[in-house]
Design brief:
By secondary structure, the protein is an alpha/beta fold. It has a domain of about 130 residues: ANL, C-terminal domain (GMP Synthetase, Chain A, domain 3, 2-Layer Sandwich), CATH 3.30.300. Helix content is about 30%, strand content about 25%. It is built from 21 helices and 31 strands. An 8-stranded mixed beta sheet has the order 12-11-8-6-7-14-15-23, sandwiched between helices. Strands 5-4-17-16-18-19-20 form a 7-stranded mixed beta sheet, sandwiched between helices. Helix 7 links the parallel strand 6 and strand 7. It is globular, with a radius of gyration of 24 Å. The site of adenosine-5'-monophosphate-propyl ester has 21 residues, from helix 12, strand 20, strand 24 and strand 25.
Length: about 650
């Protein structure tokens, strides 16, 4: 179909079909859908066989204890052996596993043999520090190879890791370390971002003050900045890791042995520790990475731009690509340092063939202008991916045309921290793609869209997205709170997993994701709960009450807008909003800093006292107000709207 003809179609009618050339070489094949449908267990059995197991499983799926599943029951394997040792054993030790690019231009080339040596040394060091299978290890790192090495070393000895994004505050880190009772924290003195060094060790010191459960802090020297040192507790990575032997005999763990905990925001103020286990998780991470990204380990150079602090970094930087023997790029810094063409320079430098990133980044590049990507040779790219939030059709088309030279399939992949791996996505070379649609569940996955009453809606209609069958990488629970697990995901619709997202089928049966239907915001692809930000705001002495909404934002998808009532006697001066924004950043992390804070005299509440966020969203997005009749006091909205002009504070 010509570009001109496409212009005249609505988004839903535009379909790009795979080229014959791509289809002929694709890992995904059309028959996968039928095979998976006709024999789900057999299909997943086959996928698991691509891994190296020490003991074969006796049963593919045990769902008798639903909603907790067991996959590959009785099987035993070691995740790090699958990600590293077996590639070396297969004669691929000299293949590059990681091309590391530091923000300041320093580089490292790490082969699979190098990775095996480093992971073995790190595993030996963890053992020397007394870490045993089952002990939790917190990882709070910049995007440097040691972050991946630490994760693999934990997996190697069966110690579940809890990676905490380096942008989170000391307070957020503290609550996560506490919740998982981690006994070791692996960190760095700091990292490089936006051209300067930021500190991490300093936040760890603050986080674990008076926390005797943390026995040691293992510190990578990255920036050489000054750090406080507690010699009873702190150890330099270089001192303990480099003197270890490069050989480490791995032990096989049960398929259901916990692999990691990753905290994500829910609808309450307390983040949920999402628990993932070993065999099923690795099976799905590896399968999806192979078919959705069409990985050819011998020739591809893959780059996923996510930080290891998020699930995308777990499944598609560390576990999926390494399980598949991929060569990948890891970049430490921000896209505009030292110039706005940095990513495209990296693509050209390493000959990146597969690029996986988030819509917020794509929209930012669109805004910066075509000249930055156009200044670099991007002709090696052959497949593009998107994740984290709905991608608007304009950004999708720009990604296709400007980055992909109208030559690369785009996989818009829907999934969650909880799902562990990709669930809904086109299959490149097999299915068509529509700009803005994640298309359909991949082979082996079943999804539905239900109405309020739990009845499946038909094509052309929308509702709530649910997953109707268990899948191998599904979460096995919420750390320390199984009741919350059942309540959050399994109580809304009987026996079906409620994802918390709205979605619709178009008339052709393609799925369009419509965003969250709960009080969770999505800012630059990161989940932040409104309650968490509200709690941070009311912890400030001047704040009496706060209500937070996610308002549409051209670049970040949603922006955080807070409505705040000050305590009597607190002054609404020009600096108040700024101070509150900084306070939230300190409490949670910079990603949660509100875009805008509006000081108001009242909040709109129903007669039962529930804040009507819908109305606040109307205000935040400058829309005409929706129905106000259920408000306890309908005149309040006038008060809020009138007050805004005088007290709103825009982003700096
Ligand atoms: O709302 C959906 C959105 O991100 C949420 C999951 O966030 P998180 O657990 O942080 O994982 C992000 C990376 C997998 C989902 O509930 N989301 C993720 N991918 C998409 C998406 N929304 C629309 N389209 C996507 N491709």
């Amino acid at each position: 179909m010509s570009g001109e003809a496409l212009e005249n179609l609505s988004h839903e009618d535009r379909v790009f079909f795979p080229s014959e050339k791509f289809a002929a070489q694709a890992n995904g094949k059309a028959d996968l859908y039928d095979r998976a449908k006709n024999d789900r267990d057999g299909f997943w059995n086959e996928q698991a066989e691509n891994l190296q197991w020490d003991t074969k499983w006796s049963q593919v799926l045990d769902w008798s204890d639903a909603p907790v599943s067991k996959w590959f029951v009785g099987g035993k394997l070691n995740v790090s052996v699958n990600c590293v040792d077996r590639h070396v054993a297969a004669g691929n030790g000299s293949r590059v596993a990681i091309h590391f690019e530091g923000e300041r231009g320093d580089t490292q080339t790490i082969t699979y043999q190098n990775l095996l040596d480093s992971v073995s040394q790190a595993a030996n060091a963890l053992t020397e520090l007394g870490i045993k299978a089952g002990d939790r290890v917190a990882i709070y790192m910049p995007m440097i190879p040691e972050a991946v090495i630490s994760m693999l070393a934990c997996a190697r000895i069966g110690a579940p890791h809890s990676v905490v994004f380096g942008g989170f505050s000391a307070e957020s880190l503290r609550s996560r370390i506490e919740d998982a009772s981690a006994s070791l924290v692996i960190t760095a003195d700091g990292g490089f971002r936006k051209g300067s060094a930021f500190g991490l060790k300093v936040a760890v010191d603050e986080a674990i003050e008076d926390m005797p459960s943390v026995k040691n802090v293992l510190v990578v020297k990255r920036t050489e900045q000054e750090v406080n040192w507690n010699s009873d507790r702190d150890i330099w990575w270089d001192e303990i890791v480099s003197r270890q032997s490069t050989s480490h005999a791995p032990q096989a763990f049960d398929s259901e042995h916990p692999l990691f905990i990753l905290y994500t925001s829910g609808t309450t103020g307390k983040p949920k520790g999402i628990l993932h286990t070993t065999g099923g998780y690795l099976t799905q991470a590896s399968y999806t990475h192979r078919v959705v990204f069409d990985l050819k380990p011998e020739t591809d150079v893959y780059w996923c731009t996510a930080d290891v602090g998020w699930i995308t970094g777990h499944s598609y930087v560390t576990y999926g690509p390494l399980a598949n023997g991929a060569t990948q790029v890891i970049y430490e810094g921000t896209p505009d340092t030292p110039h706005k063409g940095r990513w495209w320079e990296i693509v050209a430098k390493y000959g990146v063939t597969i690029l996986y990133t988030a819509p917020t980044a794509i929209r930012t590049f669109m805004k910066w202008g075509d000249e930055f990507p156009q200044a670099h040779d991007l002709s090696t790219l052959r497949l593009l991916g998107s994740v984290g939030e709905p991608i608007n059709p304009e950004a999708w088309m720009w990604y296709r045309e400007v980055i992909g030279a109208s030559n690369c399939p785009i996989v818009d992949t829907w999934w969650q921290t909880e799902t562990g791996g990709i669930m809904i996505s086109p299959l490149p070379g097999v299915t068509g793609t529509k700009p803005g649609s994640a298309m359909g569940p991949i082979p082996g996955i079943s999804a539905e869209i239900l109405d309020d009453a739990g009845v499946a809606v038909g094509h052309g209609s929308g509702g709530y997205l649910v997953l109707t069958q268990p899948w191998p990488a599904m979460l096995r629970g919420i750390w320390g709170d199984m009741e919350r697990y059942k309540e959050t995901y399994w109580s809304r619709f009987k026996s079906q997993y409620f994802a918390g997202d709205g979605a619709k089928w178009d008339n052709d049966g393609a799925i369009w994701l419509l965003g969250r239907v709960d009080d969770v915001m999505n800012v630059s692809g990161h989940r932040i709960s409104t309650t968490e930000v509200e709690s941070a705001l009311v912890s400030h002495p001047t704040v009496a009450e706060a209500a937070v909404v996610g308002a549409n934002d051209e670049t970040t998808g949603q922006g955080i807008v807070a409505f705040v009532i000050l305590r009597a006697g607190s002054e609404d001066g020009p600096g108040v909003a700024q101070e509150l924004r900084a306070h939230v950043a300190k409490e949670i992390g910079a990603i949660a800093r509100p875009r805008q804070i509006l000081i108001v005299a009242e909040l709109p509440k129903t007669r039962s006292g529930k804040i009507m966020r819908r109305l606040l969203r109307d205000v935040a997005e400058n829309r005409t107000l929706g129905d106000v009749t259920t408000l306890a006091d309908p005149t309040i909205m006038n008060l809020i709207s009138d007050g805004l002009n005088s007290s709103s504070t825009d982003d700096d």
